[in-house]
Design brief:
Elements (H helix, E strand, L loop, with lengths): L13 H20 L11 H23 L6 H16 L10 E5 L5 H7 L5 E4 L17 E7 L2 E7 L10 H13 L4 E10 L9 E10 L26 H13 L4 E9 L7 H10 L3 E3 L3 H10 L2 E11 L10 H10 L1 H17 L1
Parallel strand pairs: 1-4, 1-5, 5-9, 6-7, 7-8
Antiparallel strand pairs: 2-3, 3-4, 5-8, 6-9
Helix pairs in contact: 1-2, 3-5, 5-8, 6-10
């Protein structure tokens, strides 16, 4: 069988897993033999079965960790992706294409549609970019745009992929690394979210002040490559305070109310239960959704500054009588597109020159 060159040749957990399997069968054999043989009282079948269950869970966690680890050639993949974009856009090999990059989430692609009408806008489908995965989620078109706002170049990702689609966190964040390789040093991450905080209502825009990673995954897990960034990343100011102040000034100029709060990232694809929403509120979350976090981590790992804006498309589960539905999410996001577009048209050129 051909081995994927993107992963280490040796599984660092192989011996541990092999020993765990042996111990697992030993535990079960003892537990099952209890009724038939005379054993020391310390061999409690129920405790042994519980111990075996814990071993199974640990083995599953380690297996998942290995399968979700970033490939050893991730840096080469980023370079190849960036080179493909340059070739499709007929750009030079070294020049920065733009200093600002944007990711448009569920229902927020209406802003990009306006830019697509500009003859100067150039586009590349994700399928034309090596190692880019295509999203299967409605509302995520899957193309990269090179636009100009007030004569300032902006790279825009119209749509993203998610971990719940079966992708590893490093793969969901690969487009962000590609933007960085193309010259982007300031990233705006957007998406739809469910409102938890009492100050947030359907249709509001929320500026992310921080996040809580509850996905159980991290795009930095796996091989450490100094070309991509430091092994350990300080996340104290993940969402740049200076850029947040700039966003608030632009919002005030456009008479757009931009609220603030903490974003909780979960795995999905199910919406949260009311009990989970109560837990998230206790933890300090003001909004919850299924994206952004891995992208923010990868951007900070690469050294880019991050700004996050979420559109509150619904109240989180249990906070209203409304049933949660993705079609409703897209409709509410579309209704908020006017204020979102006004904010982006004012903010993005400022990010490019500030």
């Amino acid at each position: 069988m051909t081995r994927d060159p993107g992963f280490p040749r040796e599984n660092p957990h192989k011996n541990w897993m092999k020993n765990s399997v042996t111990a697992l069968f030993f535990d079960f054999s003892i537990a099952c033999s209890k009724p038939f043989i005379k054993c020391d009282d310390r061999f409690d079948p129920e405790l042994l079965l519980l111990h075996s269950t814990v071993r199974v869970i640990n083995m599953m966690q380690v297996t998942q960790m290995v399968s979700q680890a970033a490939p050893v050639d991730l840096a080469k993949r980023v370079v190849a992706s960036a080179q493909a974009v340059r070739e499709h856009l007929d750009c030079g090999d070294d020049a920065a294409l733009a200093s600002v990059g944007v990711v448009l989430g569920s229902g927020l692609g209406h802003f990009a549609k306006q830019l697509e009408a500009d003859p100067a806008t150039r586009r590349v489908d994700y399928k034309e970019i090596p190692y880019f995965a295509a999203s299967q989620v409605q509302g995520h078109r899957g193309q990269l745009l090179l636009c100009r706002l007030q004569q300032r170049p902006v790279l825009m990702l119209q749509g993203r992929v998610h971990c719940y689609e079966g992708h590893a966190a490093w793969q969901t964040a690969l487009p962000i690394r590609t933007l960085h390789a193309l010259g982007v040093r300031r990233v705006v991450l957007t998406g739809a979210a469910g409102a938890i905080g009492e100050h947030l209502h359907t249709g509001d825009l929320m500026l992310m002040t921080d996040h809580i990673n509850l996905t159980g995954q991290n795009p930095l897990m796996g091989h450490d490559d100094a070309q991509l960034g430091a092994r350990f990343v300080d996340m104290t100011d993940c969402y740049c305070p200076h850029l947040r102040q700039l966003a608030q000034r632009c919002a005030a100029q456009q008479q757009v109310v931009l609220k603030e709060g903490v974003y909780a990232g979960v795995l999905g694809p199910t919406y949260e239960t009311p009990a989970e929403v109560r837990m998230l509120k206790t933890l300090g979350a003001d909004a919850v959704a299924m994206s952004v976090v891995a992208e923010a981590i990868a951007a900070r790992h690469a050294g880019a500054s991050v700004l996050g804006i979420a559109c509150m498309t619904n109240k989180a589960a249990g906070l209203s009588a409304q049933q949660l539905d993705h079609d409703d999410v897209q409709r509410v996001a579309a209704r908020s597109s006017q204020q979102f577009t006004a904010l982006m048209q004012s903010l993005l050129p400022q990010l490019a020159i500030d």
